[in-house]
């Protein structure tokens, strides 16, 4: 990208590109930038302490040290700590021959220590059921694997003794306070179980039994730490009445509720030889729960965390419909979906505090194996770089419009199936302006580039002497380890030189900074953005 191009000189777009006009008004603020993106999670808690898990947690913590959260299943599951797909364990609770509780926090401590050493805090999921407490303990460990097996086994059932369960949770929180300190643990989130409204998967009890489990869990947490931040129910967004029933029960029993949580997933398909994403499905699921919460005076002002916010439901599943995961379709989808869900929350008048990506890594699996993950064998994937772009946006949102951004209602009705969605969001932090632009389409097929003409107005006085623009890109040839892997022939076991090349290809490296002329607080620039590409422009004044 040349300086002349950036200063608004005429640009000859490629023959198959289409024109897009974007305008940004740096003086018109529209509200604070809320870092809803800073939440992540995984089924397999023990991966966090392994080599590639530690490395990825370091990358996540670096996005916003002390403000990134991680949620994991299986923190109370019985076992020796050996991970498997959709499985993990800590053996926190067993019983002696007389039926007395035996607590062992060593594996959980190692997991939480690993988080905290890397600037990541726990979003604590209280579950699953220890074998010694399960009402149906055998078989205990599931036999699930991609494509076959049974998931719901002994770990998924209610406790045979709610008093022992409550004491387990109390002792756990008490131990955390003793180990990490009152103020640290008070900054965590605590919630009970996972998707208890899907009995075929994660919960083998009734709705009423789950509500009781949550009620006694909250009581235990608050008994150990009265200031603890508690909430739930981290249900699957399934267009049912579970959230309303949960709020009814919390209100009736006066159970403390500091935040509300649910999940929202999309629904990709494999059609006519390619992946077609289901962005509309994901947004409608979120809106259904937003509407239920907004309708309740006692809860409408509570912070909301979408405890799993993903293009589809199963990170460990593979298959043709999930082929979007390795490349830039996942990147552009993430940019488009996070921006839209924040817009939905604003429309409903609710406070969206976080949207958690249920994506981490799968230790020692083959390279780019088709899982929903942020890194593969220690190599960052394109989607991780979107979160790096998000982390660079701070301060106040400013007005930004694109003439090719698909309206929210149209996306929710039918997704992005006709014209491409070339959208924009912008922010100003003092005299630093950041502009994120994405080029998304539901169909993973080739399409023309967007030839973007971007006009900046009302830049502050600090820009009088001019500006410097730095551009970051995620597309087929930038910050894209998967494209590099394909170009080298998709080796089963990359050698050292190939591995180093993949690491280098994954880097979110900025373009050479370029000068912008400013005239009466205005400037313009032009660039092309490939289909499924994402770019961030960072503009700062010349000193």
From TrEMBL:
Q: Name one Pfam family in it.
A: Glyco_hydro_39
The alphabetized UniProt keywords are: Glycosidase, Hydrolase
Q: GO: which molecular function terms? A: hydrolase activity, hydrolyzing O-glycosyl compounds
Q: Which organism is it from?
A: Asticcacaulis benevestitus DSM 16100 = ATCC BAA-896
Recorded hits in InterPro entries, A to Z, give:
GH (IPR017853), GH39_cat (IPR049166), Glycosyl_Hydrolase_39 (IPR051923)
Family indicated by similarity: Belongs to the glycosyl hydrolase 39 family.
Q: Please indicate if the UniProt record lists Hydrolase as a keyword.
A: yes
Q: What is this protein called?
A: Glycosyl hydrolases family 39 N-terminal catalytic domain-containing protein
